[in-house]
């Protein structure tokens, strides 16, 4: 009898574990890796270290008895890595589309990133736009312009700073909640818990 209970317990544990795939997109140097590191490790690396090809990490997120393991694929933004990153668009369920508010070219290239992702198999993924490096004193792209561009595409918009951490938790928790709401088979209770966590993160930023 004990063996049967143990097996049942393992089955229930597996049933409460879910995985989602999230990618980052944006020009080289716009701050994608720093945002991910700030969220996952709660620290900031000031020295710029370009991503070579693709970087990968797993971030476990607990929602009461549920665990969501987020597979984060940080795609290098340089043109030399196009053939490498193009293999990772397929089956992505969510995306952080990043530009640097101090670099107008990174903002103007956002449309190109959308085109590339669609060309190489990204379909129906949830996209959040992140305006990075908002702690910097000199801006080339102001909030109104970035927000209006995102809204024209139907994408949620967040201004964030990996240096200070401002907006980062709210960005990622809101993205995960939106993804879970779109994935078949996710329990309603889990989605509700994820939304609650995202609302709390946004409230802390207010």
TrEMBL record:
It is a lipid-anchor. SMART domains: RAB (SM00175), RAN (SM00176), RAS (SM00173), RHO (SM00174). The keyword Nucleotide-binding applies. One of its GO terms (cellular component) is endomembrane system. One of its GO terms (molecular function) is GTPase activity. Keywords: GTP-binding, Nucleotide-binding. It is found in: Endomembrane system. The keyword GTP-binding applies. Belongs to the small GTPase superfamily. Rab family. Protein transport. Probably involved in vesicular traffic. This is Uncharacterized protein. It comes from Pleodorina starrii.
């Amino acid at each position: 009898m004990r063996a049967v209970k143990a097996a049942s317990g393992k089955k229930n544990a597996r049933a409460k574990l879910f995985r989602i795939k999230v990618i980052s997109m944006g020009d080289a140097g716009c701050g994608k890796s720093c945002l991910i590191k700030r969220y996952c490790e709660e620290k900031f690396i000031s020295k710029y270290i370009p991503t070579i090809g693709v970087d990968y990490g797993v971030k476990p997120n607990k929602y009461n008895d549920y665990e969501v393991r987020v597979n984060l694929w940080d795609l290098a933004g340089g043109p030399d890595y196009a053939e490498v990153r193009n293999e990772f668009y397929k089956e992505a369920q969510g995306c952080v589309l990043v530009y640097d508010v101090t670099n107008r070219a990174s903002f103007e290239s956002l449309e190109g990133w959308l085109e590339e992702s669609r060309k190489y198999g990204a379909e129906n993924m949830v996209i959040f736009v992140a305006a990075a490096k908002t702690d910097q004193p000199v801006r080339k792209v102001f909030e109104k312009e970035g927000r209006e561009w995102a809204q024209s595409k139907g994408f949620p918009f967040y201004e964030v700073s990996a240096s200070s951490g401002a907006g980062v938790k709210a960005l990622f928790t809101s993205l995960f909640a939106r993804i879970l709401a779109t994935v078949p088979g996710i329990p309603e209770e889990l989605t509700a818990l994820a939304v609650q966590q995202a609302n709390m993160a946004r409230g802390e930023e207010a």
